[in-house]
Amino acid sequence: MNFNDFNFNPDLYEGLMAMGYKSATPIQEQAIPVILDNHDLIACAQTGTGKTASYLLPVMDKIMRAKDRHNNTLILAPTRELAQQIDLQVEALAYFTNISSLAVYGGGDGIAYEQQKRSMRDGVDVIIATPGRLMAHLSSGVLKLEHLQHLILDEADRMLDMGFYDDIIRIISYLPKKRQTLLFSATMAPKIRAMAGKILNEPQQITISIAKPAEGINQQAYIIHDQQKQALLTDIFKDGTYKSAIIFASTKEKVKALYKTFKGLGIKADAFHSDLGQKEREDILLAFKNKRLPIIIGTDVLSRGIDVEGVDLVINYDVPGDPADYVHRIGRTARASTKGTAITLINGRDKRKFDNIEKLIEKEVPKMALPEHVAAMEISHVEEKRPHQNKGKKKVWHKKKPKPTS
Asked: Motif Q motif: which ranges (predicted)?
């Protein structure tokens, strides 16, 4: 379906053509008409399917036709990185229009907070916000949303996972009952459906490609001990084959440790975690997006907050606990019908997790042979015993040389 079939405002259409949009993706083709017809919508679509444009384009078209545009649209997002990403996309699509937007999130200084207050008091067309910071502005009485026409919840499943349910319900209590509500989620768990039943009015439903990685991703996995992981990473990056890579670890402590390892090896990389200041995080993302930084290391927060084309490698240093997070992580590569590689490192504790991932994606991921020098590494093992056997005894360490993985 071609975008001129939607009869968007000419200035908006010029913006999306300037961004290189050609034909609509399945989620855009199905969601845009529903939104233009003023229906509430619950859509299940993973990252990388074009879902952001599927709600931005029709809502922005409606804004340009609206009489009252004071704080017209509110978009809730789970992280500041995603809020920033959505705001950038609004700015790009609105280049030839007079649509204004504001990203509202925590972590900034007092000046940024005052600028947010002033902009919201004056009124903007689109507010993109994280729930916690928006709730602070609503509670202070600065932000008025009685004229709001559209509420959009992006990555609703992630917001609930992060404990934002109560904030979302409180935010909705400040909104007019007569509004259009759009809920987008990568999964449709019972808690999502329960919330949708409370806040949406007779919604249309769309489901697009639930939890299936893009065809262009070359998925690989290694059965490996934790003590071999850093050696394997060194081997993967030593010849400079991969120009742009993301490494996902389970905790910020591991992210920091990997950063120190790469720095010691002289491999250019940077760590992205919550202990950094907002300006530092923005600088890292910008350097990575502009190809000045080849490797970025982060946790799952990064998997939904970064949208960069040209990432040719994603590494799961740890297997994610939620199979849907695996899809989000590896979805950072092979975007826009390109090719990419996703490598997952599986230790003994994570085998069951990876079995669940393979069930979800309905595919067995090839298990690769470790390089000989990595397979031959000596591994320290703790002698595992039942709790009552260990009582009063120290852990026993011994050396064992594993057989090379075939």
From this structure: 1-29
Question: Of 204, 134, 141, 142, nearest to 172 (Cα)?
Answer: 134
Give the SS3 label for residue 398. strand
Tell me the CATH architecture of domain 3-208: 3-Layer(aba) Sandwich (3.40)
Residue 165, amino acid: Y
State residue 7's pLDDT score. Answer: 93
pTM over 0.70, yes/no? no
Tell me how far apart the alpha carbons of residues 101 and 88 are, in angstroms, rounded to a whole number: 9
Instruction: Render 188-218 in DSSP notation, one character per residue.
Output: --HHHHHHHHHH-SS-EEEEE-TT---TTEE
The per-residue pLDDT for 170 is 95
- Would you list the domain boundaries of the chain? 3-208, 217-373
**Domains 3-208 and 217-373 agree in fold:** yes
Q: How far apart are CA 185 and CA 207, in angstroms?
A: 10
Query: Residue 108: its pLDDT value, please?
Result: 65
> 4: which DSSP letter?
G
Q: How far apart are CA 30 and CA 10, in angstroms?
A: 21
> Quick one: CA torsion of 140, 144, 146, 151, rounded to 10 degrees?
-90
CATH superfamily name and code, 217-373:
P-loop containing nucleotide triphosphate hydrolases (3.40.50.300)
Count of all residues that appear for the chain in the document: 406
Tokens of 15: 């913006």
pLDDT in tens, 301-314: 676 556 677 899 99
Residue 141: both structure tokens together: 């009485």
- pLDDT tens digit sequence for 39-85: 999 998 876 678 899 999 999 999 999 988 889 999 999 988 889 88
pLDDT score for 190: 86
* DSSP structural state of residue 366: P
Proportion of the chain above pLDDT 90, given as a percent: 53
**Torsion 170-28-180-188 (CA) sign:** negative
The residues, any chain, with a CB within 8 Å of residue 399's CB and separated by 6 or more, are 378, 379, 380
